[in-house]
Specification:
TIM Barrel; 41% helix
């Protein structure tokens, strides 16, 4: 089967990280982040272009320095449930934390979205690096790194077990015999582990795709291992072509080592295309947008996210970078640790550190439509990604990409011209997971 590019759209409303001034753009509704009609329109535009998925990010802690979208936005599964009834094919992927949600609650909510959408749900598993989240859940401190990832591993296992509570033929609904449920096809979980104790069963049957698709973003060593063991879709960091190729190869290697088929783990590279009439116009627009969104105070505040929303403004900007290594351990460990390491190694001041780590890094997918399509094709062929997780500033930018770039990808045979299936798994080319109890029953029968 010919390898095809997968496309996902992530919607940020009035502006997420690095888009602090987007809310001022007259083309952006000031209530976009809380207007379900705005999200429905975005999802429908992506579905019209045959995108694979519509992706909603989330976090549960804010302070006044956070981007406008973070300050006032809808809860992901409530949002996606509304979008589900206004779309028919596009996948619906929501971000929820395994650290601050119980497995039973997560299992039931995602299974509900899967039924509402006819088998199009996906869960982006996060462990929450915003340390302040703990205080919203009655904890004095954020759980340490190892504990968060241990909980995530176990939570996914428990949730998948709950999703298998009913076998596919558990409900004969035979009126003549008076049998609605075949009780032999209902299974309690009775899980007792290090972090969770869950009896089950779940009170919801499997959807047409069997189980929601598991997504994850693994950058650190623990994150990559979690992705290799449980993820079916991975949101990958950006970088140079060589860096993305190395990440891609590493995840595929780890997946194979975990005894899984690497072709059943799809890597989505985060991308923010900028398309204009000419390459020069696009490069100029990309730079202008960055300058409008990134004044120094905003960049200083954003740097603090990797350290538990730490307030760096209390320090002398021209003094050596402060000793905040301990904060990185419980926050965004990978990025925070790298910031501390480089600042120490190069003797950077706080001001210099901010500039180095928030410097303008243009997307590789900037240019005229032919240029952007050609670069996407080049990176795809070079095994830098299986798909792109696309972000656009405005609806007009999305519409331009759909009108000018997508047809070029289709002409090159790199992207679909029609959906292959009605479920997210079907369109991603992922197998439907067999119900473990049905599988076990079949093995027992075969042995007998």
């Amino acid at each position: 089967m010919t390898r095809k590019i997968r496309l996902a759209l992530r919607a940020y409303g009035v502006g997420g990280p690095g888009q602090h001034s987007l809310w001022k753009d007259p083309r952006v509704p000031k209530n976009a982040s809380t207007d379900i009609r705005w999200y429905i329109a975005q999802a429908q535009a992506a579905e019209h272009a045959k995108f694979d998925a519509f992706f909603i990010v989330d976090s549960q802690f804010i302070n006044a320095t956070y981007p406008a979208h973070y300050l006032n936005r809808l809860e992901p599964l409530t949002l996606l449930s509304a979008v589900a009834v206004h779309t028919t094919h596009i996948g619906l992927v929501g971000t929820l934390s395994s650290t601050y949600n119980s497995p039973f609650n997560l299992a039931r909510r995602f299974a509900s979205l899967d039924h509402i959408s006819g088998g199009r749900a996906g869960w982006n598993v996060v462990t929450s690096f915003d340390t302040g989240t703990s205080r919203n859940y009655g904890l004095d401190e954020h759980l340490d790194y190892a504990t968060r990832y241990g909980r995530a591993h176990e939570a996914v296992a428990v949730i998948r077990g709950l999703w298998d509570s009913y076998e596919d033929d558990a409900f004969p609904a035979d009126v003549e015999r008076g049998i609605f449920l075949d009780p032999a096809k209902l299974h309690a979980l009775d899980h007792v582990g290090e972090h969770f104790k869950v009896a089950g069963p779940l009170n919801l049957s499997r959807s047409p795709q069997g189980q929601p698709v598991i997504f994850q973003a693994g950058v650190s060593e623990d994150g990559r291992n979690l992705a290799a063991h449980v993820a079916e879709g991975i949101y990958a960091p950006g970088g140079s072509l060589a860096e993305t190729q190395a990440y891609y190869a590493d995840i595929k290697r780890r997946t194979a080592a975990a005894g899984r088929n690497p072709e059943h783990v799809l890597i989505f590279l985060g991308a923010n295309p900028v398309v204009a009439g000419t390459d020069e116009q696009a490069r100029r627009l990309s730079r202008d947008v960055f300058e409008a969104d990134n004044d120094f105070d905003r960049k200083l505040a954003f740097l603090g996210r990797g350290f538990g929303a730490y307030d760096f403004s209390q320090h002398d900007l021209d003094a050596p970078f402060p000793d905040v290594a301990a904060l990185a351990e419980k926050g965004g460990r990978t990025r925070g640790t790298e910031i501390v390491r480089r600042a120490r190694a190069e003797g950077l001041t706080l001001r210099q550190t901010v500039e180095v780590f928030t410097d303008y890094q243009p997307s590789p997918f900037v240019g005229a439509p032919d240029t952007v399509a050609a670069t996407i094709g080049q990176w795809f062929d070079a095994r830098a990604f299986d798909g792109l997780n696309l972000g656009f500033r405005t609806s007009e930018d999305l519409e331009r990409f759909v009108a000018d770039v997508v047809p070029l990808l289709q002409k090159r045979g790199l992207f679909r011209t029609g959906y292959e299936a009605d479920t997210l798994r079907g369109n991603l080319g992922l197998p439907v997971p067999a119900n473990r109890h049905t599988l076990e029953r079949g093995l027992v029968s075969a042995e007998a």
